[in-house]
Amino acid sequence: MSIQNTVSSWEDLLETARKNTPARRVKRPGQSPSTAPIPSSLLKLPQDTQLPVLLYRDTNSWCPFCERVWFALEEKEIPFATEFIDLSNKPKWYTDLVPTTLVPAAKIDGKLVYESKDILLALEEKFPHPALLPENSEENAIARQFLEEAETNGFKDIAYKFLREATADAQELANLQAAFEAKLDELEQTLAKYPGAYFVSTFSLVDTMYSPHLDRLAANLPVYRGYHLKGNPRFPRINAWFEALNQRPAYHRVKSDNITNNLLLRRRWGAQPIGNLLPLDAADSEKIQYRAEAAERLSDNREVAIGDILKNSGVQALAGNGDISAIQEAVDFHLRLLADYLINENNVPLPWGRVGGKENIDPTLAAVGAITLAYVRNRICAPRDMSAGAATAFRAAADQVLASIY
């Protein structure tokens, strides 16, 4: 198996990518996750500043309740540190610390607070500017009522029952859908109480409460139930709310992409898709900033990515009893090919060169390339590994490279 190495080095790829994206992550060698987002607020602080908030959250960025708090911290630009908790093996110190043993939890100036709603309210009290609750006393009271109702109105339970219920009975599904739509109608009416797109007159904690769940439902329902929330004419205010959220930079720092949400539902809850499990949002796939961020993430975290592929993708079997180093070289090459394509958006450099063509390709090289690109396409998790926009660009580029060379 031989490779005509026509692709830039990792060092050159990383340097070029960083010139085109401000996105940065801190490395966490030997830990999970292997990198973590740097809160936007920290970019403005001197190093070694004592941070007022410590957020305890899940390692994979799957928890919607953690996302609520992260969203508010980014919106309010509160400096914070993060302690990641492995939900499948919670450390004893954490279960001793937090009475519920659940995430999220936070220490705010050293005081422990848990339950996402309580953390949001504590942050608002401690850091009142910029405000995420209305200053007008009457509207403030209504917003607080909406916060309580988000936890008690049964919306989440009914929505996820419709999404996850394992039944083939058409009438039962119709009843579940009707109950879900009734809850969506209530949200429509709530969003109609104030002019503008948000639950109250300005963006607020109420929006951070609902956004993780509605995002996941909007991604999952078309794939697992054939039901569309976005673009549904029955819910114009919910759709206007989605559009308004999409204009907020903090939202893009914390949200997952559709594919992450869809793969998660199958892997964690065993749900069976009835539609395309891997729908790409083409609107994000060609944006320069997202392509550059994806290339930067891959280039900077390449050692972990290569190790993961060699360990978990099955590609090692292609070595037989031979030297695994040749397989590792081919994995490395295809990942550099992907990073190069993300940065340069030009024709994909062919592993066999410009002369000859596909008939000259080594079948083992082709198999390594196919496994590598398909594996990383579905392995990345947003926003654990990169932002949702970058993940979309990454997946689209992996598809294009694979289609172009094999």
Topology summary:
Elements: H1 10-19, E1 25-27, E2 35-37, E3 53-58, H2 64-76, E4 80-85, H3 92-97, E5 105-108, E6 111-114, H4 116-126, H5 137-152, H6 155-164, H7 170-191, H8 205-224, H9 236-245, H10 249-254, H11 258-269, H12 282-285, H13 288-300, H14 302-312, H15 324-344, H16 363-379, H17 388-405
Parallel strand pairs: 3-4
Antiparallel strand pairs: 1-2, 3-5, 5-6
Helix pairs in contact: 1-13, 1-15, 2-4, 2-8, 5-8, 6-7, 6-8, 7-9, 8-11, 13-15, 13-17, 14-15, 15-16, 15-17, 16-17
What does this structure look like?
It is a single chain. This protein has 406 residues and is of the alpha+beta class. It has three domains: 102 residues, Glutaredoxin (3-Layer(aba) Sandwich); 110 residues, Up-down Bundle (Glutathione S-transferase Yfyf (Class Pi), Chain A, domain 2), CATH 1.20.1050; 124 residues, Globin-like. Helix content is 54%, strand content 6%. It has 17 helices and six strands. The chain has a four-stranded mixed β-sheet with strand order 4-3-5-6, covered by helices on one side. Strand 1 and strand 2 form a beta hairpin. Helix 1 runs antiparallel to helix 13. It is globular. The two termini are 15 Å apart.
Summary of the model, kept short:
The chain has helices at 10-19, 64-76, 92-97, 116-126, 137-152, 155-164, 170-191, 205-224, 236-245, 249-254, 258-269, 282-285, 288-300, 302-312, 324-344, 363-379, 388-405; strands spanning 25-27, 35-37, 53-58, 80-85, 105-108, 111-114. The chain is α+β, with helices and mostly antiparallel strands. A hairpin with a 7-residue loop joins strand 1 (25-27) and strand 2.
